[in-house]
Amino acid sequence: MRVRHAVTGSTSLRLVLGIVLLLLAAMPWLIDPFRLSLLAKAISFAMFALSLDLLWGIAGVFSFGHAAFFGVGAYALALITRDLSFPGNGWVGLVAAMLLPALLALGIGYFTFYGQVAGAYFAIVTLAVSLVLTQLATTWVGLTGGHNGLFPVPPLTLGIPGVAEFTFDTPTRIYFLQLTLLAIALVVSIGVVRSRFGQALVAMEGNESRARFFGYDTSALKLIVFTISGAIAGLAGGTFATIEGFVNPAVLGIALSTQVIIWVILGGRGTLVGPVVGALLVAFLEDYLSGTFLRVWLLMLGALLLLAVLFRPEGLLGTRKIRRLIGTR
Amino acid sequence: MEQALVQILNGLSTAGILILVALGLAITFGLLGVINLAHGELFMLGAYTAVIVTDAGGSTWLGMALAPLAVGALGLVMERGVIKRLYVRPFDTLLATFAIGIILRETMTLWRGGRFERVPNPIQRQVEILGARYSTYRLFLLALGVLVLGGAALVLYRSRLGRNTRAAIENREIAAAMGVDVRVTDSAMFALGAGLAGLAGAAISPLVSVEPNMGLPILASSFFVVILGGTGSLLGVAAGAALIGGGQALVSWFADPVIAQISVFLLVIVVIRLRPRGLFGR
Question: Of A14, A262, B131, B180, which has the fewest beta carbons less than 10 angstroms from its beta carbon?
């Protein structure tokens, strides 16, 4: 009931979203193939931003090393589709890209959340996970190829093995696959937030002690949302690996973890759609500006983050309307 | 036997540096409730101070003396300019210091070109301990850590500033009502924490390659120290540093340094699970 109300309550926003979707679907005919593949890659980042927003914006659990999950997903898919060429390996790769990061999140989350590791401490633990995994990926050359990384990661082949298989090997095909996955991830995330479980997360984000007094097991809530978030981040990493055709330790690293935080902040945390827009927007800006500003790009992002924290803590695009549409306020 | 002794000494001298870095972190976190994620970058700037001083013809010792002053001053600017506005939004200090860390790191990368730089070791000699030859400078690092820890204890428990600070931690409003200027204690403690990171960076600079990204691993290690030792206790910091430094040295004796780091990390995770307030936390 409340779901229908939330949606019908804002026709203008639905209209805007509809136009945006239409525009996204028309992209292959509007921009050249090179830009299209950049956009497809940016969609991986958008999914990644979505995963962090689900964890941080919705549930209030902050991860400083979220690239750990993105990277594990990327390596998982790359290893499976590159080295094992049995029919249906694309599916196995995608599933592994979600399952392994989810298990990693489950493991870390069990020890931290049930140890009552609170906000900042948890953030540090995730930061450390990301650092440790980066070093592992750099030194375990036998598995990960070390600094050089893994290549070539082949294009994904999905479908029913032996009956109707389909290889995603042109920019247009990859783009539509990405768009579909992003749509699924968004719908699933919004569904999660609107479910009873999701509303408990929102309550917990608002006031954790109060949520606990109402009888919610907040450690379990955090553990579940962390696992879901890890799976989405891993899917984002896996798709990134197959588009890029190459994986190196940077996918696990601190720079990427930083960037995803910036995308979420800029888009407005707790809005799900906002961080997706934030990621796409920053990717667009990066493509547009990095020719001139490549060396100062991270510096600019850092300055932007500082300014946003000081003056626009709700995010640049985060509006109350979007929050209400999603169901977080 | 000699090998074992060298490993123990390696662990202890690593602990000496970790004490310096983690102490600064513990002061800003335990006393101010601010997690300073730019702490690793302040450490890095301390090392660069030594590089710049020695490049200009000064000695490593001079660099080590100037680093805490320069980095402490920068800490003061950080506190006055940014952190002060965010005490009411504690979580945002995390993001803000993270952003400052990026800015410092990228600025140094632009300036120094991201190359590896070295600082001459001021004590080239080695000493003989129970038949094993060992770097005198590493022993100096251990002594420095212990000395600074003692100094910090003196400041906190014997000086007027320390007394005011402890009062402000206990209860900010009451301390302010009793005439303690809590803004002064905040700034002083943040600058002190930053200065300690700067000192640590300059002190380690003769033993490592100085580069803009050197702060991240040390930030992680010193957080482990603070997590293990618990916040707000100087003794906890020392014990945590000894455990982490010693543990890493011990494991890297028979395994890869990366394995050592991972096992230390796992140890910390397990400790957090069993003793959330740290091994020595109250």
Answer: B131
